[in-house]
Design goal:
Layout lengths: L8 H25 L4 H26 L11 H4 L4 H9 L3 H8 L3
Helix pairs in contact: 1-2
């Protein structure tokens, strides 16, 4: 089982775009093989359905604002953390967020 991942708002947007690109590629492939290979068409259709559901979940998460959009949302939470918790928190940040934290971006 994979550990929980903390994705930034931008990373999630990028993943959604990549999923949409893959869905389009699957749909194009389906058009090419639909009447030729039913097994492959079925597999692609299932994969496409899974990707569409995943994309919709990610879009819903973005629209509801459940992902961090920058450092502004976490400043008040940082004040109450111990230094060990701060180190752990910092290690989970994207490189861009780390650069923002130290003022290099």
């Amino acid at each position: 089982m994979l550990p929980d991942m903390i994705l930034s708002y931008k990373a999630t947007q990028f993943i959604v775009e990549a999923i949409e690109y893959q869905i389009a590629a699957y749909q194009k492939r389906l058009e090419e093989i639909e009447n030729i290979d039913e097994d492959e068409a079925s597999d692609i259709g299932n994969d496409c359905g899974f990707l569409e559901a995943l994309r919709n979940d990610l879009l819903e998460t973005l629209e509801e604002g459940k992902l961090p959009q920058g450092m502004g949302n976490v400043e008040s939470e940082l004040e109450s953390l111990s230094w060990q918790e701060l180190v752990k928190f910092t290690k989970e940040l994207s490189i861009n967020d780390r650069l923002l934290l130290v003022g290099c971006n």
